[in-house]
Structures are given as C-alpha cells and as structure tokens.
Amino acid sequence: MVQEDGQPPSEGCREQPELPHRHQAQQAPPREQLMAVAVRDRPDAVILAVRGDVDGLTAPRLHDAISDAFERLDGRVLVVDLSEVGFLGSPGLHTLTTSAREAVEQRGYKPLRIVVDSSRPVVRPIERSGLDGFLELYHDVADALRDR
C-alpha cells in the first residue's frame, strides 16, 4: 500500500484488506440450482413439476421441457405445476403464453393446464398481465386432472 505522497506507509499504519469492487460481476449459480423440472408420465397426463425461479435464464429450459412433453402427450393433457415456483418473471409468462397457444393452435392438443395454487409470486404476475383470462389455471394437480 502506498500513501498519497507516494511513500510507503509508516510503521504504525496497518494495511487495509482490499475490498471487492461493488461492480465486480458475481458468478451466477448454475441454472440447475435456479430451476428444476420433474416429469411425471401418467396414463391420463404428463405433469411437469417446476421448482425454483422462472426468469430470463431459466425460461428457455421450461420451454424445452414443455416442447419435449408435447412430443409425448399422445392424446393426454399436459399439466404444468408451478406451485413450487418462487419467482415468475416476464420471460416465464411469455413461455407459458406461447406454449399454451402452440398446444391448441399449432398442435391441436387440449389446452395446457397451469397449477398455481395460491402462490403470490406466481399468481400475481399472471393476474397483473391479464393472462388469468387466457391460461387455464388450477389450484392443485388433482383439480387440473379432474377437469377433462
């Protein structure tokens, strides 16, 4: 450490530890830690249980999981369970909207069934964006499976 006058510090001075810059980029955790999708194949449905955050980093993985599930439906319904999601950002809303539209308009499938329970981080963005009038929302998986 050098003093303002360019001289080394005097004996009584302690060197201060170097603090990280507040603008230094912190390494993001792996995407697998931010969101996980478990697939359950049932005779009457394919259920995608999503856990974690659905944001700009993880929404493409959700889209891929939904697209993969489309390929396996074979007349069954697709249930996307978001009851364990802690954050649903606009990229997640976009993924749900485009996937719901694709299911019906392009693939001729039954509409996606989205389970949201009463989780505020999920329900609120859906309601604020007006998508609660477009998406088929259910409070639990059993409810989504009953409605055929």
From TrEMBL:
Pfam families: STAS (PF01740). Transmembrane segments: none annotated. Residues 1-31 are annotated as: Disordered. It comes from the Bacteria. Residues 12-21 have a biased composition (Basic and acidic residues). Residues 35-148 form the STAS domain. InterPro entries: STAS_dom, STAS_dom_sf. This is STAS domain-containing protein.
